[in-house]
Amino acid sequence: MRFLDQAKIYIRSGDGGAGCVSFRREKFIEFGGPDGGDGGRGGDVWAECVDGLNTLVDYRYQQHFKAKAGGHGMGRQRAGGKAADIVLKVPVGTEILEEDGETLVADMTEIGQRVLLAEGGNGGFGNAHFKSPTNQAPRRANPGLEGRERWLWLRLKLIADAGLVGLPNAGKSTFLATVTSAKPKIADYPFTTLHPGLGVVRVDTREFVLADIPGLIEGAHEGHGLGDRFLGHVERCRVLLHLVDANEADVGKTYKVVRKELKLYGNGLDEKPEIVALSKADTLSEEERVEKLAALKKAARKTPIVLSSATRENTDKVLKALLRAIDNADAELDLDVPADKIQPWRP
Ligand SMILES: Nc1nc2c(ncn2[C@@H]2O[C@H](COP(=O)(O)OP(=O)(O)OP(=O)(O)O)[C@@H](O)[C@H]2O)c(=O)[nH]1
Ligand SMILES: [Mg+2]
């Protein structure tokens, strides 16, 4: 499953329909008054936050959205019809930005949330509107107002239960490919993964979503490497799986580089529950294993899991640890009971 985190779209609301110039014509009525109807409103373009969407992938196939124009007014006071609105469905967590990619238009955070992105043009008045004591037969009608066009960015921060972090080449994508049916690109060089990817992990009867995130390097929080864009994705993961390549000369230092980036980025990234694993353990001798594990344990101040995607050593153990951490994170969230549901305290 490929995961698109942003899309640029063009939207245009519909023009208003034109007002109509018309006069009443009926048998035995010599000077029928003006009866030109108003034009209908052009269609609006809305964004709506919906359930069940995880990606912006649909916007890769279609980027242009134009609402239709309102109907023109007609004789006998008939108004033109209002054109249908266009509703762009987006997943929870989508940010809508101006063309500059920086100015926030809307943050779509709740299912059902709707935002008007471009209002349809108003229909023009028909000549019936311009009748006055001094002008009983106006030949005037307004054209409809034009619709509005704009370019926008849709940007989605990943929402996943667990996210993979680590330096480039740590074995993150390989792990995702080993434990899910996802097929990320894997290669023996840094920055293989350019977009976050998602996979669904099954542990016994349970499922959770694991996100593969491009590698982080020193300075990532200020845009180095693939930049801080991906740290934004980490924000939406409830727990982290931090992989440290066992082939690194100094695994403790490697661990700390990534931790530092998480901390400097802010937004609580370094407070997320973290499982630490020493990856590619199959490449180590018995001695190295003990030594590297001790070094990583010292830096992380918790016991890392020795992991190999190649031999599947401890892959299950890692998944179970992640599931436990996710469940604990859920339990913590449940403590956030809305104020009106809290029982008043009585001495
Ligand atoms: N021996 C061994 N090699 C591994 C293991 N896991 C990954 N590798 C190799 O390590 C290299 C990098 O793996 P990736 O999964 O692409 O690493 P990554 O962390 O996703 O890298 P980026 O996407 O660049 O951040 C590849 O050549 C993999 O075959 C493992 O468990 N054992
Ligand atoms: Mg990768």
Automatic annotation (TrEMBL):
Localization (cell) = Cytoplasm
- Cofactors (names): Mg(2+)
Query: How is this protein annotated for GO cellular component?
Result: cytoplasm
One Pfam family name is MMR_HSR1
Biological process terms in GO annotation: ribosome biogenesis
Q: Which PROSITE patterns does the UniProt entry name for this protein? A: G_OBG, GTP1_OBG, OBG
Q: Where GTP is bound, by residue?
A: 166-173, 191-195, 212-215, 279-282, 308-310
Major subcellular site: cytoplasm
Q: Which GO terms describe its molecular function?
A: GTP binding; GTPase activity; magnesium ion binding; ribosome binding
The cross-references to InterPro entries, in alphabetical order and at most eight, read:
G_OBG, GTP-bd, GTP-bd_Obg/CgtA, GTP1-OBG_CS, GTP1_OBG_dom, GTP1_OBG_dom_sf, OBG_GTPase, P-loop_NTPase
Which keywords are on file for this protein?
Cytoplasm, GTP-binding, Hydrolase, Magnesium, Metal-binding, Nucleotide-binding
- Where along this sequence does the record place binding of Mg(2+)? 173, 193
Q: How does it assemble?
A: Monomer.
Q: Which PANTHER family does the UniProt record give?
A: DEVELOPMENTALLY REGULATED GTP-BINDING PROTEIN-RELATED, MITOCHONDRIAL RIBOSOME-ASSOCIATED GTPASE 2
Record's function text: An essential GTPase which binds GTP, GDP and possibly (p)ppGpp with moderate affinity, with high nucleotide exchange rates and a fairly low GTP hydrolysis rate. Plays a role in control of the cell cycle, stress response, ribosome biogenesis and in those bacteria that undergo differentiation, in morphogenesis control.
What name goes with this protein? GTPase Obg
Organism of origin is Methyloraptor flagellatus
